[in-house]
Amino acid sequence: xxxxxxxxxxxxxxxxxxxxxxxxxxxxxxxxxxxxxxxxxxxxxxxxxxxxxxxxxxxxxxxxxxxxxxxxxxxxxxxxxxxxxxxxxxxxxxxxxxxxxxxxxxxxxxxxxxxxxxxxxxxxxxxxxxxxxxxxxxxxxxxxxxxxxxxxxxxxxxxxxxxxxxxxxxxxxxxxxxxxxxxxxxxxxxxxxxxxxxxxxxxxxxxxxxxxxxxxxxxxxxxxxxxxxxxxxxxxxxxxxxxxxxxxxxxxxxxxxxxxxxxxxxxxxxxxxxxxxxxxxxxxxxxxxxxxxxxxxxxxxxxxxxxx
Length: 308
Ligand code: CP
Ligand code: NVA
Known about the structure:
The chain is of the alpha/beta class. The chain has helices spanning about 15-30, 30-35, 55-65, 85-95, 105-115, 130-145, 160-175, 190-195, 210, 235, 245-250, 270-275, 280-300; strands at about 45-50, 70-75, 100-105, 120-125, 150-155, 175-180, 200-205, 215-220, 255-260. Strand 6, helix 8 and strand 7 (about 200-205) form a beta-alpha-beta unit.
């Protein structure tokens, strides 16, 4: 069975802890790891059915820093865009490359890729989840504040892919989740149930300021996700903008996170995203380190990064 990285919920707490600890070690020893070229001779295919800056560059650079190589397939420049099935694409690519990273629309496309590929498949965002982002986010939270066990994050905006992966991570890292989203934008029940069944408290709080109280971390995302543009959405989301009032309502040492790209002036004000509590560029950097650890988990199980 290939070592797919599909969703946080497919891993237990110890496995995630090991991937994150390796990510931190790989970050600390980046020159030594690069000199080892542990993925020399390995090829990663990167499929993009949606745009990307961070994911595209961090996987590409990360793979090269590990000694491997990459190739990029966009829907428009491959037969995926002309209707070749995901199953056939998976079987063909598996004959050429050592791993497949895919950013796509419906989650079922990811699952179909994983079912038919005979090499590891990595989820680089679907309509439903974004697990690589959340590993980088937990890594960033820990770097700034230590253990996140018993802490609370408050989510603002749309209750979709990024929030879903946070909900899967919550019980595995031991944090609780407040959710401040407009009606009609609640997360899917199964992700809330996943967090609760693992022991995390999850509260849906429609009052934006109330949802920040006691929060150690405030997180938001674009109000309109890729491929989900809908008329009138912005008015619906306006009460859930993360601004200085929201940050004041949270704990004094609360951090602010955003997966980026941001629509400044919509889901977050300049004062917050550029302010002292914001760690958005650390999050972006940690995509690189977290994904290098994921690539090693998938392609070189048992690898131990140098400890420095
Ligand atoms: N956060 C994130 O996944 O960014 P990109 O869409 O630029 O890859
Ligand atoms: N929720 C956003 C995340 C972008 C990284 C989207 O799906 O567009």
